Amino acid sequence: MKAARLHQFHSPLVVKEVPDPQITSPYDVIVKVGAAGLCRTDLHIREGQFDEAQKEANLSLPYSPGHENAGWVEAVGEAVTNVAPGDKVILHPLITCGLCRACRDGDDVHCENSSFPGLFAEGGFAQYLKTGARSVIEMDPGLEPIDVAPLGSRTRGSRRTTPSARRCRCSTRAPGALSSARAASATSASNA
Question: Which fold has domain 2-187?
Answer without folding.
Answer: Quinone Oxidoreductase; Chain A, domain 1 (3.90.180)
